User: Which sequence fits this backbone?
């Protein structure tokens, strides 16, 4: 693959202790140049969009609760609201409507409904945590052959929505596994014969199904590709339009703030060995939180991700083992005097790490502030120890067992850090309850960490090759279970799919914790899918990642 050609060599840069041997990696440079240096945003424009949202928002509220609207029509409207990223504006109304509709639902209601209608129903209920049974799709299967009925293949819109619906499957839902493979193959077979919006819809779904995509990107593409759905109601169209413009200005401002911080901290100079991926990191932050009121959270998460990125590249691409031992110790100590023990080149970075958390502390919600910050710091320290463990294994040429590797690999997935930093910024959450929940190692978080670690390794083990020295899941799995590479990869990919099923299961309505707490974790799984589905789109961001960042902060929003 041409994009994966990066100069990864074990270079002997230096010979003596003062000139140490470094596992030096030359990552591809940033591809942005000065393109994002002059993002403009105007606060009065932003205010105008906020005002423009008010009336359509009220109109849409009335529409959603309208008792005379046909239930399938209502679910279709709620689907559009969800896919346009507007759900947070109508949380109460939607929940009340879905509660009513779901309670009175009978399987017979679906006897006469077509594939499209049932698939939309299924998506809406599952998106909002209601477990509509997958048996609703049984009628599309031929009971004697066990295959899907031929006639549904002519209904491309129905097939597309069945494909989208299958992404919400859980374990033991074999009809959805079959439907996913069937619809994917069928859609791939017809995509070249399609045109207009339907072509765009199918093309994008095959590349990234909506449920597994970065939601801000998905909503923006829905607005472009689903013109019919968006313009069904004037209020929906007007609200979506003003909302996108409003968000785009906000995102431009946030990205500018983050770019300025990276520049002010002088990362290019102090960490020249690390990947330079500022807008790509910001995309992670937008992926975790979409709503405008998380503006500060996105900036804080972007900064933290920059620190994690640099740390990752020191630990597995630049530092010597002696330096890494000192760095880990200093991060564990977490006090400015520990800087003395560090090599000169790491000192400025260490200072930023400590300073940033102190700065952040001033900005996080008052409720449980101390504990929120403490948990984030501990997660960061745990990550450094996890990176260090990997480095020690590589240094001593020890290949751990798969289980040993994964115990540490769940930590180096970085998702404990991302989750605690997300939580740190959520003022609607009771921190004590949330931190207590984290400590129980909830299934959704464990599944997301597993997905993150495995997806990353399965996609990158070949080009990380010599550098990783088999300290990754593919080789440890091959060795532990005595399997050839292709079988190991296949089994790990199956585990990734199962992790998705577990995540979906955990997103069903639960009384255990607030649903709001699950969202950033689900969103981490989605970003992982976007980044690692085909290759490492973070290290090699050309095409998709660049396209997405451009779409969010550069391309203007279409008017119908
Ligand atoms: C999740 C995010 C945005 C974190 C910051 C950047 C990062 C560590 C990316 C993964 O790099 P990698 O592929 O080199 O990871 P690893 O070294 O763990 O395989
Ligand atoms: Mg790495």
Assistant:
């Amino acid at each position: 693959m041409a994009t994966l050609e990066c100069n990864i060599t074990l270079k002997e840069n230096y010979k003596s202790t003062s000139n140490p041997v470094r596992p030096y990696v030359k990552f591809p440079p940033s591809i942005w140049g000065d393109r994002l240096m002059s993002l403009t945003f105007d606060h009065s424009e932003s205010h105008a969009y906020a005002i423009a949202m008010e009336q359509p928002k009220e109109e849409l509220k009335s529409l959603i609760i309208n008792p005379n609207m046909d239930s399938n029509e209502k679910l279709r409207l709620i689907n559009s609201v969800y896919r346009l990223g507007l759900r947070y504006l109508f949380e109460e109304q939607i929940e009340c409507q879905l509660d009513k509709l779901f309670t009175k639902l009978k399987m017979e209601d679906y006897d006469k409904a077509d594939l499209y209608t049932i698939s939309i129903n299924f998506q809406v209920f599952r998106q909002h945590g209601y477990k509509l049974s997958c048996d609703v799709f049984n009628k599309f299967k031929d009971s004697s052959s066990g295959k899907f009925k031929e006639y549904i293949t002519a209904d491309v819109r129905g097939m597309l929505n069945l494909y989208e619906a299958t992404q919400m499957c859980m374990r033991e839902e074999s009809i959805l596994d079959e439907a996913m493979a069937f619809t994917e193959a069928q859609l791939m077979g017809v995509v070249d014969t399609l045109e207009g919006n339907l072509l765009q819809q199918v093309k994008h779904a095959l590349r990234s199904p909506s449920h597994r995509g970065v939601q801000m990107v998905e909503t923006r593409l829905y607005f472009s590709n689903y013109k019919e759905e968006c313009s069904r109601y004037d209020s929906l169209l007007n609200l979506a339009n003003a909302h996108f413009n409003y968000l785009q200005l906000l995102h431009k401002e946030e990205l500018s703030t983050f770019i300025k911080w990276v520049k002010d901290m002088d990362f290019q100079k102090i960490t020249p060995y690390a990947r330079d991926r500022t807008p790509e990191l910001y995309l992670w932050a937008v992926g975790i939180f979409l709503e405008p009121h998380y503006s500060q959270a996105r900036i804080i998460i972007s900064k933290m991700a920059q620190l994690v990125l640099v740390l990752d590249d020191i630990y597995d691409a630049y530092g010597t083992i002696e330096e890494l031992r000192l760095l880990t110790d200093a991060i564990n100590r977490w006090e400015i005097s520990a800087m003395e023990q560090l090599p000169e080149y790491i000192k400025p970075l260490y200072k930023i790490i400590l300073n940033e958390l102190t700065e952040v502390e001033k900005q996080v919600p008052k409720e449980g502030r101390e504990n929120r910050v403490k948990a984030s710091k501990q997660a960061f320290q745990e990550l450094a120890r996890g990176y260090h463990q990997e480095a020690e294994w590589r240094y001593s040429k020890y290949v751990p067992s798969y289980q040993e590797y994964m115990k540490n690999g769940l930590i180096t997935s970085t998702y404990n850090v991302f989750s605690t930093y997300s939580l740190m910024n959520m003022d609607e959450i009771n921190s004590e309850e949330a931190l207590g929940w984290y400590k129980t190692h909830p299934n959704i978080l464990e599944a997301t960490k597993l997905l993150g670690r495995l997806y990353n390794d399965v996609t990158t083990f070949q080009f990380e090759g010599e550098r990783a020295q088999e300290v990754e899941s593919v080789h440890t799995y091959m060795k532990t279970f005595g399997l050839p590479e292709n079988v190991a990869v296949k089994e790990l990919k199956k585990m990734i799919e199962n992790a998705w099923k577990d995540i979906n299961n955990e997103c069903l309505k639960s009384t255990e914790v607030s649903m709001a707490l699950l969202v950033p974790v689900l969103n981490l799984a989605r970003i992982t899918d976007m980044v690692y589905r085909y290759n490492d789109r973070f290290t090699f961001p050309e095409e998709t990642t660049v396209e997405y960042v451009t779409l969010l902060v550069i391309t203007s929003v279409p008017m119908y």
Notes: The longest strand covers residues 7-8. The chain has 24 helices and two strands.
